[in-house]
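Researcher: Good morning. I'm working through a list of sequences from a screen, and I'd like to move beyond sequence-only analysis. For each chain I'm collecting a predicted structure so we can compare shapes side by side. This is the next one on the list. No need for commentary yet; just the structure.
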Amino acid sequence: MPARRHRGLLLLAALLPFAALSCAGDYYFPPIEPEKAWSYDEVVEACGLEVDTYGLLPFDAHGDLQEPVTEECMETVGSAFGFSWASFDEVAHEFDVARTPLERVMEGFLMVLGWNGAMVADVLDGGGPVALTQLLSEYEDAYHLKSTIDAGELWFALLYDSIQKVYYYPDLDAKMSYVSNKGLVYIGDVTDEVKEPALGNAWDKEIIASGLIHEASHAIYGGHVQCGDNPDNKTCDEDKEGAFGSQVWWYYNWLTFNAELLDEWFCISVRDNMYLSCFHINDHGDYLPCDEEQLWWTICPDVYLTRSSSISPRTGIMKAVPEVHS
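Model: Good morning. Structure tokens for this chain:
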């Protein structure tokens, strides 16, 4: 088994805040590590996420796992992202329906690392948060990613370079928390009634998946600010340049290119959870993923969508994109 990746730079940053992080404007990026102990291909192979033909992997149209998650898959993902098995009080094992906290967290990771539908070029097309896009572009160059491959590998790079250890802490007053100068992610209670009803059910796989993008993005953006309509609430971002903007951008790309493959209820669940995240962006008026008309009338099966092999209207690159048919 490969050794845990070296993180001397990030650990140094814990002692000298931001000293070891690359900087652009007011944003700070985690160090890029092209020589990784674990590669995306190893995770894909261990978890059976190879894409031979178009389709959702590892989930089906209802959001259920197509195949059981194997012990090897859980062990590989857990080792790559530093799962604290003791905090979960579980070890790597096979499962076909996520019931335990560890199984639900695994589903979240697999939703990010599996088939995204969007290409690398779609994620980097300029509509997302600027600082996030800049960092992801650096990943594209550092890891020699082709612009036309699925974006799963791009999101893997973000999570892998930002997350060193994952702990389960059910007494946390939020779903997740991130210690940016140490790369630590704390997972809150994902079994009982959700503590933040406005964000949906804690066990929804898309919330956990998008939450991982959110927490990793704190390595770029730092903390949150006061919410415009409720100054006592300090879980908002001023605009799309923040963890919520990054979270919504992942949602938008995943949903835009997968909506037609989902049944109505799974699509609506993902769409609504995305839109609820927009309420944590004080100024989201010009942010396309938070556009109500885009969300409510063109993404989910309120209309019928089919796949075509036309030029992407967003990137100008040949890509299967949704078309609206009457």
